[in-house]
Design brief:
The complex is a heterodimer of chains A (227) and B (329). Chain A has 3 helices and 11 strands, in the order E-H-H-E-E-E-E-E-E-E-E-E-H-E. In chain B, strand 9 and strand 10 form a beta hairpin. Classes of the chains: A alpha/beta (227), B alpha+beta (329). The interface between A and B is medium-sized, with 30 and 24 residues.
Chain lengths: 227, 329
Amino acid sequence: MQTIDLSELGLREVNKMLHAQAADTNQTSWTIENAKGSHAIACGLDAPIEVTVKGSTGYYCGGMNQQATINIDGSAGPGTGENIMSGKIVIEGDASQYLGATGHGGLIVVKGNASSRCGISMKGVNIVVQGNIGHMSAFMGQSGNLVVCGDAGEALGDSCYEARFFVRGSVKSLGADCEKKEMRPEHIEILQGLLDEAGFDADPSEFTRYGSARTLYNFDVDNAGAY
Amino acid sequence: MLALDSTTAALAEVFFRDLNMCGIVGLFLKDKSLEPRLGEMLTSMLITMTDRGPDSAGIAIYSGETAGRTKLVVQSDTPDTAFHGLETKIGKVVGGTVSMKVSSTHAVLTLPAGTTAAARAALPEIDASLRVMSRGDSLEIYKEVGLPKDVAAQFGISAMSGSHGIGHTRMATESAVTTMGAHPFNTGDDQCLVHNGSLSNHNSLRRKLRRDGVHIETENDTEVGAAYLTWQMQKGATLGEALTSSLDDLDGFFTFVVGTKDGFGVVRDPIACKPAVMAETDQYVAFGSEYRALVDLPGIENARVWEPEPATVYFWSHDSAPTSSEKAA
């Protein structure tokens, strides 16, 4: 295992070392010490390596991630996992605002709570939160799944497209064009798979599914005058 | 769906990004043994926030009070002439003993209690360059244009002791980079405010407040926020009530941290784009725009760390238990 000290090497050097790992690297396990809330740790990785960050992180940890598994052994700052393409990010503590924004793929697991705008404009990423999520989450969510074992804040799924939202607790309010949906067997199966992958022991039948009412993003000729 | 993607991007970029404008720190000590280190801890927190606000910086520090005396902190760009014999001149105006401690461009005048208004009124006559930074029994505000580390060194902030304090690093968006545009803003006796964000209705609100006789010096949006709170409190509102009503009357993005003689409070607007992290231990309550600002505090590893909820007023006081109240939607 490779252990590197962020406060000694500096961010650019640390990220350069991680970027230098090829798909067949033998150095598959990395630990980054002294995160101290620094920004952009382990951004833009593209190799099947596992990186554990000791401490809490600042803005954009694991942004644009591909293939790598990133464990944050603390809480994560704004924009963590932004535009994630694949791989996995696991946050032991809480996540700040716009977690996984515009993410195209991969999985983000939060063991604490996530703040506002969780999964904003999600485009295929799966996000599983053990606690609660804040307001305006999954705004304009296009694809992927957002699983919340606790409660959701105001305006969940506002102006969403085809992203799916599974919430076990209460939803403070639904955003425009977001509605409660029937939980069919295929949804139970998807949800069970995500809970298993995240390592959370929860009964999928206790969740409610929400999604787009599909009235906003389909062109309606009666609205032609409004354009 | 594709046609709207650019809108998504624009919304995410423009409305939901805090563009790293301005940094705020705050520290409220519960453990009196830390009081001699308040200035040192706040300075370290402030310097960490330099890249959020490199153009000016300021600190409000509550350094204790003396019975029967009150403080007036004044600033001048020409301190050699403006502060020359200032304590004697003010002493004559107020008819009592006035002492003065000069620190670079700032001077702390200590006056007999109840004479602040008379002293303040006399300042323009004495020297036109004199400007009031703060007034109060315990509060002292120091602020200038420059990098936070330079501003802190200029006033020797790290050697100061006190019970609580707040600081600000500024990246100007709504008005010029000047001393008077720097934060914290003094809002009333022993009250001050720092702000991260931008208020969009500050021009109309300034006109309304000026019509009501509120004194507003600059074209700065935060000063309007500060004046608004003062105005509410003059009408009888508590600080908590004034902060709660600010959620209705102020339009824009804001995280406010306010200081009073015995405590400090935090409120974020309902959209809550501007970042905020709080930490609490048995020894202190700390606020930072980012977690980075808190990492050197003692015992931070085991602190309770959380993001303050939007549209919720939090308040800690040396005199009473902490409170948080959510504003009804």
